[in-house]
DNA sequence: CGGCTTTGACCCGCGC
DNA sequence: GCGCGGGTCAAAGCCG
């Protein structure tokens, strides 16, 4: 998948998106935009033209919506949160290939949600990056992925 | 054999 | 203290 597969919504499309799904949880305090972070935080399918994406920030300036072509991936929201980077993807698929190799190291049921949360660590020796993946309890057609940390290596699979 | 999942146990911080 | 919730460990099993 190339960078060109991802583009921001234009303003008309953006207006049609129901943003009520996208309330920011209290524990997700906003802490700057992604371009403040090295490219290594981002990879594969979520690599997008952030300068353009920022132009369609919501009024709070804390999220943006992206149109992603494809059967099962249509709308994403991204957020930058205190060294974490989270996005929601409308997808049937649980495992999204983001160009890195991940090793699963835990799975927990979360309170108030019927869906488990999965914990992954980057497979590269010494790389501190983790991510967790869970289905949105309010709208199971979405998968929420949260990245934490910065890869200390190039993408390599 | 090597790398990955699976899974229950363990740890730790926090509120009562 | 103690229990609960969230996060992690690690032994065992699975699979190429």
UniProtKB/TrEMBL annotation:
The keyword Nucleotide-binding does not apply. PROSITE patterns: WRKY. It is found in: Nucleus. GO terms for molecular function: DNA-binding transcription factor activity; sequence-specific DNA binding. SMART domains: WRKY. Pfam families: WRKY. Residues 91-156 form the WRKY domain. GO terms for cellular component: nucleus. This is WRKY transcription factor 57.
